[in-house]
Each structure stands twice: as structure tokens, then as C-alpha cells.
Amino acid sequence: MVIHENNFFKIIKNDGKVYLQTQKPGFMLKDFETVVRQNPRIKLTNFALLKKGLNEVSDSPVEIGIWLPSIVIEISRDKMSASLFVYETAEYIKDNVQSIQKRVQKLLAEANIIHGILNVNLENIVTAKATLIAQGTPPVKGEDAQIIYLELPERKPVIREDGKADYYDMNFIYEIEEGEWLGEKIHAQPGIPGMNVCGESIPAPWGSDLPLKYDHKSAFEVEEDGKTVLRSKISGVVEEHEGMVSVNHHLPIVGDVGIETGNIEFNGSVSIKGTVQPGFSVVANGDISIEHPEGVSGAKLIKSLDGDIFIRGGIFGLGETRVEAGGDIFVKHVNDAHLVAGRNLNIGFYSLGSNLSAHSILVDERKGKIIGGTVIAKSTIVTACSGNRLERPTELIINCINKAQSLETIQYKASLLKSMQEDIVELETQIERILPVIHSLTQRQLEALELSKQKLASNKETALNVDREIKQLMSDLRKDNKAEIHVTKEAYPGTYIQIGKKSTVLTSITNGRFLIENGELNV
Question: Is residue 142 predicted with pLDDT exceeding 90?
């Protein structure tokens, strides 16, 4: 069937293919585009033969393309959409809207497209351009699980004035009873199924699940009213470290730590209503709170391995007191003592003749003072005043974190920890083998077993310390390490300022933010 003819050639359609039969050479290829526009159902597939055929008289027709259907509906691979193509001229479409509409409906039925069919204005269709004719309904993901934890009071010291005295106060110990609520999880919800254009259901993904983060030794999960509820296994003190909730055993001491109690060592948190008397020590895994308004005087050691320390009053160290915390230290004032904090050291009023070490050291920026002693931080030191008018030597030092060195140390300690854990497992296995026949052991063998037990306990303690050191190093690396010493009011002569390897001694009263700028200390 001839679908186009002029003085130069004929275009013939036969069995879905398009042929060119040239009668006279010389028809321009660019002018052939007009012929194609007039016949939108022609789809050229061989331009080389077309170009050659236009310039040579042919004895027989040359195949140059295919003859497209008048109307085509294409379904996407995922069956979520279908597109309509009309390969007719704009005039034809405008004059045959009703018949095209009937044919479209027939094609939709033949393709089994039954969902999401759109109303399309056929008069606005552009020849050979895809028009969305059906759109599937995508599935909707379910709501993610929701986690709610018991909200703990912020550990932030407050300085209150009543006209007569200053008070250093804060919310520190949060006690809870066995079985009390610690948090809950509302479970992830199912989504809403979708449907493709063929009416097939599409499963919806559930919302993402989230775990409750807690210490399994001190808390447990239970299903209540369609929720997972987190409750305390014990009565104690609620704590949160790095997003994990735990309940520490709590040792409340109504009076003082002294002759009546002896030194305190406790695997949990300790709250002391009184003080720690001279020469006595308190060591705990959790938080330590000392509530006496006068603080402590001459205590030997106050140490929290993993928690924070709060001393409502001050510390009169008498050159003997050492306070160490794996977390933060909060104290009203410090005289002649040694304080070390894994995170921040917060001082309400002043530090006098003391040695302080922490990630950041924060003395009240309104009226806080650091007079004498050595203050070493990894990131920030803040105080209102440093030194005094008598030019008492006072050292403010920032030892910046060396990231490359810290990473190397972490890798070394991790390797050491792995080796120690392997030794621990081997010792435990040896002891477990012996225990069933312990009654038949000689005295020498019993002594060897006891030595093995002591070695196991020592190895576990050492491994715990190494693990703690690794976690502290990693925590330091994660924190913003902006090295800065900020004296808001007066830094007196005699104040030694050091950041990294750059240092100076002040010779006149100044204030401001001291940091490294362009490789130099900006003093």
C-alpha cells in the first residue's frame, strides 16, 4: 500500500514495514522530515539506506523503517504507570477524538489496566509524545517505632544568692524503685498496601524498628498494652551514658564517711548526706554525691570510675585530696587539691593553688577565679579571672588532642585488649575443668588454683581499665576540639598561657579569648 508518493519516490507500507522506492534521484534528506511529519506512523530505522536510496533509482523497494500502530499504550516495567502514544497528526486527532477515545478504552481493557486510569484531554495530546494515562498507587511505609525514655533532670549547677550566702546546687541523684517505668517503645506500624495499574496489590513495608538501649543487668523489657515497656530490675539511681539507660545500685550514707563507716568501695552510686572526713576515701563505679554544704576537707580520695561527682560545698584539699571522675565533676570551690575529670570540670566560684585536668574546665564566667596551680584541659578553659594582683604564678594549658597519635593508641590498646580477653577465656576454661574434681586436689594443686583465680580477677580488672581508656580516647576524638582559653574579666601578670606548643607569660592585665591564629598564640 502506497502511503506517500511524489515525483521522486514512493513510500510503501507492507506487513508493518516501510519501504522506499526511488524513481528519480536528488530528493534532499532534510526535506524528507516533512514527509515523516505528515505521516507520524512512520518510524525510520535505517538512515544509511534512506540516504543512499534517495540518491539512487531502485529496481525494488528498500526497507527504511516500520509502520507504527495508530495508538499505543505502554506499561512501565514495575506496572506502576501506563503511557499513551498517538501516532497521528494533530489535525487527525482533533477530528477523531471520539473514535480515538473508544480505541483507547479498548486498549486499556486489552492490557488489563483497571486501576488509576486518568482523564486525558485527547485534544491536548502531542503527536508521538508520551501522555500518562494511568498511575498506580504506591505503598506507604508504616510509621517507625517511637522510643521514649524517662526524662532526667539536666545536670547543670545553679548558683543561687539569698542576700547572705551563695549556694551551689543541682539535680544530681535521681532515685527509682524496683519495677518503675524507665521508658517505652511504641512498635513500628504496618504500612498501607499499594496497587499497580493492573489492580495487583503491592505489599507495604513496615516502619523501621528501633531498639531500647539499656543495661540488661539493671533493666528489663515487658509487653504492656501493645507497647514494649522498660522497667527497672532494682531500686537504685537512674543514669544515662551515651544514650544507654541504666540503674545503678545506690548506697545512701546518712552521715559522714569516717571512722564509723570506714573507706567506701561500692559497685554503684553513692550519696553522702554529710562529708568525707580527713584521710578517708570513697570509690564507686557510679555517681558520687556529697551533700554537706561545707564540702570536704582533707579527704584522701573521691573517685567515680564511670560516673560523675557532685560536691555541694568546696574542697579544702590540704595538699592531700584527690578527686577523679570518669565523667564530670561539679564542685563549689577548690583549695589545694588535685582534680581529674574524663569530661568536664565545673567549678562554681574559684580554684586556689590546685592542679586541675579535664577535657574542658569551666569556672563561672561572671565571677569565677583561678589563682595559682596548674590547669590543663584538652579543649577549653573558661574563667572570669586568672592569677591575682600579687602576680601569683598560674598556669592555663591546653594540651590539644593529636588525632593521629590517639588513633594509633586506640589501635594498640584494642589489640592489647583482644589478647587479654583471649587469656581470660583460657584461664576461665582451665578453672572450669578443675572445679568438678576440686575435692581430689592436693594442697599444692589447691594453691595453684587459687593463684589462677587471683590472676583471672586481676586480668579482668586490667581489661576493664583498658576498655575504659579506649572509650575515653574515642569520646575525646568525637568531641569538638576547639582549643581556647577564655578569661572574661582579668588575666593578671604572672598568668602562663599555653596552647599546644605555643606559650607566653602575661606581663600586663588583659582579658579575652586566647587561641592559635595563623599558627601563633594571639596574646
Answer: yes
DSSP state of 438: G
- pTM, full prediction: 0.61
Distance from chain centroid for Cα 126: 50
Q: Output DSSP code: residue 278.
A: T
* Chain segment 224-274, per-residue pLDDT in tens: 999 999 999 998 888 887 778 988 888 999 999 999 899 999 988 999 999
CB 206 within 8 A of CB 191: yes
Q: CA–CA separation, 377 vs 392, rounded Å?
A: 20
Euclidean distance between the first and final Cα of the chain, in Å? Answer: 95
Contact 192, 185 (CB under 8 A): no
- The C-alpha angle with vertex 376 and arms to 370 and 382, in degrees rounded to 5, equals 50
Distance (Å, whole) CA 151 – CA 157: 18
C-alpha cell at 294: 561545707
Element spanning 476, H or E: helix 443-478
Q: Is the dihedral of CA 404, 415, 304, 321 positive or negative?
A: negative
Calpha distance 59→61 (Å, rounded): 7
How many residues can be counted in the chain?
523
CA distances to 53, 167, 275, 313 from 333, rounded to whole Å, are: 100, 11, 15, 7
- Helices 443-478 and 403-434, axial angle in degrees (round to 10): 160
Q: Residue 163 has what pLDDT?
A: 46
Q: Residue by residue, what is the 3-state secondary structure of 83-139?
A: EEEECCCHHHHHHCHHHHHHHHHHHHHHCCCCCCECCCCHHHCCCCCCEEEEECECC
Beta bridge partners of 239: 246
Q: Tell me which H or E stretch contains 34.
A: helix 29-38
Cα–Cα distance measured from residue 311 to residue 514, given in angstroms and rounded to the nearest whole number: 30
